[in-house]
């Protein structure tokens, strides 16, 4: 179990820590010093790198989490906080998949075409959805640690 908890926590650190850094640190710094075209290009590169790590984190979270549920004897025998984690974790994953395919892929195309106005609007939507997922991530950590 300890090995799966470790793998699970690696996924948490990469995903939630990465969103915290992007939202709370990089975003205000970029707004302060970069004009829109450079800022949008920066986010395009940041997302293309960070999102690869998020896919890996999701894979690690799901495989380790589902295996630990199996060790508990199945979903119905797992404690309530684990069931809640699964529901909230799947919600985070669904939001990420929407951000990736529904927002980031078109954002990447708008940046390539230098369509800065539309790209800026899409970025604002991505920012709001990342804020939602960052909050959900913090709530899940609270549920996992305090719910035990
Ligand atoms: C969606 C699939 C997920 C499943 C099936 C799942 C399942 C589990 C299970 C079974 C445990 C072990 C509980 C125990 O040992 O008492 C656990 C621990 C934990 N999970 Fe998840 N989880 C998922 C997603 C997440 C997400 C998205 C986060 C945070 C963003 C998260 C954060 C944690 C934390 C902080 C722990 C405590 C680790 C420890 O044991 O010290 N989980 N999870």
Overview of the molecule:
- It is built from 4 helices and no strands.
- The radius of gyration is 17 Å and the shape is elongated.
- The chain has helices at residues 2-33, 36-71, 80-112, 116-146.
- Helix 1 packs antiparallel against helix 4 and helix 2 (36-71) packs antiparallel against helix 3.
- The longest helix has 36 residues, at 36-71.
- The chain is mainly α.
- Protoporphyrin IX containing FE (HEM) is lined by residues 5, 8-9, 12, 16, 61-62, 65-66, 68-69, 82, 85-86, 89-90, 92, 137, 140-141, 144-145, 148.
Output the keywords.
about 150 residues; mainly alpha; 4 helices; about 0% strand; binds protoporphyrin IX containing FE
The CA-CA distance between the termini, in Å, is: 15 Å
The protein's oligomeric status is single chain
As residue ranges, the low-confidence spans are none
Mean pLDDT: 97
Pattern of helices and strands:
HHHH
Estimate the helix proportion, in percent. over 70%
Radius of gyration: 17 Å
Number of strands: 0
Which ligands occur here?
Answer: protoporphyrin IX containing FE
Could you give a short account of the major beta sheet? none
What would you call the structural class? mainly alpha
Shape: elongated
Number of helices: 4
Strand content: under 5%
